[in-house]
Design brief:
The complex is a heterodimer of chains A (167) and B (152). By secondary structure, chain A is an alpha+beta fold. Chain A has one domain: Roll (Thiol Ester Dehydrase, Chain A), CATH 3.10.129.10. Chain A contains three helices and eight strands, in the order H-H-E-E-E-E-H-E-E-E-E. In chain A, strand 6 and strand 7 form a beta hairpin. The radius of gyration of chain A is 17 Å and the shape is globular. The two termini of chain A are 32 Å apart. Chain B has a six-stranded antiparallel beta sheet, covered by helices on one side. A two-stranded antiparallel ribbon of chain B has the order 3-4. In chain B, strand 7 and strand 8 form a beta hairpin. The longest helix of chain B has 18 residues. The C terminus of chain B is likely disordered. The chains are: A alpha+beta (167), B alpha+beta (152). Chains A and B meet through helix 2, strand 3, strand 4, helix 3 and strand 5 of A and helix 2, strand 3, helix 3, strand 5 and helix 4 of B. Strand 5 of chain A pairs antiparallel with strand 5 of chain B.
């Protein structure tokens, strides 16, 4: 029987894969979004800055920031599931994960954002759930909140075109 | 409020939005219930480095801003609004390097809701990059939980 891998090796592999996936997208850096990982579960974090404001009188986060945050979270979740499969099945050693060998990112077909309450000037969090993922199309639901996990300030549903596989 | 004063107010508000300025948006046209806002290509807004194409989220931000300006400029809508929902359909990738132009039209206003549609294109104006439809608040900020931003 194979011995289990040392926990540090597992963590380093997963963190390196996630960083490779996220760091290559300039717009994620522009927004300042980063991802917390617990096992395979991702939580997107949007730290508050004044440039994210859409209505200075309130102030409230721009609806376009909320839309961007939700779409980024959905695309990374889809990309992460593809990548997880590769790194955890052992088909691709982490040394082989470079910007050139990463799976292509899914493309958004449509995205519908439901603004439930205004985004307050503080950090926001989001998690995406893949409701259906076929060979070509995927359907994703994503929720965002600020202070309370159960008090969502926005949610969205989107359809995505999955990157063409090898087969 | 007279028309000229309202147009000035909407223009002033739209041009002072911090995130729209961060994306280098420019208000090109403002009518009565319609608006045109454009955004340059910028490497910082790229979503797919393999192609250099602008992220859909940046296009969404442009659509939302233009939609909001179109709603506020409508004679029957107040100069304060918030997005209730926004649906964006992506037809094709924006050509890297080209300016993205969004035109939005507020086509109906009730006592509480404004409805708008929008189109975005690059240099090939006959071939849209994306279209959007949305509903915005139009009650002058009376619904405090949506528009006032105060925790309840």
């Amino acid at each position: 029987m194979r011995r289990p891998e040392p926990v540090q090796v597992v963590k380093e592999r997963r963190d390196a894969a996630l960083a490779a996936l996220v760091d290559r997208v300039p717009y994620i850096g522009f927004l300042g979004v980063h991802f917390d990982r617990r096992g395979d579960e991702l939580t997107a974090v949007l730290p508050y800055t004044e440039t994210l404001i859409g209505n200075p009188a309130l102030p409230a986060i721009h609806g376009g920031v909320t839309a961007s945050f939700l779409e980024v979270t959905s695309i990374i979740e889809l990309g992460w599931v593809l990548l997880w499969e590769e790194i955890e099945s052992g088909t691709r050693p982490i040394e082989d994960i470079t910007p050139e060998t990463l799976p292509r990112l899914p493309k958004t077909i449509d995205f519908t954002i439901d603004y439930l309450r205004s985004g307050l000037p503080r950090d926001a969090y989001a998690r995406a759930r893949i409701n259906r993922s076929g060979r070509r199309y995927a359907s994703v639901h994503v929720e965002a909140w600020q202070d309370n996990r159960t008090r969502l300030f926005a949610q969205a549903t989107g359809h995505f075109l999955m990157p063409a596989g090898d087969g | 409020m007279d028309r000229k004063k309202k147009a000035q107010l909407v223009r002033h508000f739209t041009e002072a939005i911090p995130f729209s300025n961060a994306l280098s948006m420019r208000l090109d046209e403002l009518g009565e219930g319609d608006a045109v806002i454009s955004m340059p290509h910028d490497d910082r807004f790229v979503g797919d480095p393999a192609t250099g194409v602008i992220h859909g989220g940046a296009v969404s931000a442009l659509m939302d801003t233009t939609g909001g300006a179109a709603v506020m400029s409508h004679p029957d809508a107040p100069v304060v609004t918030a997005t209730l929902d926004l649906r964006i359909d992506y037809m094709r990738a924006a050509t890297p390097g080209q300016r993205i132009v969004c035109r939005a039209e507020c086509y109906h206003v009730t006592r509480s809701v404004a409805f708008m549609r929008a189109w975005a294109h690059d240099d090939d104006s006959d071939n849209p990059i994306a279209t959007a439809t949305g509903a915005f608040t139009a009650d002058g900020g009376k619904t405090t939980d949506k528009s006032a931003g105060a925790p309840t």
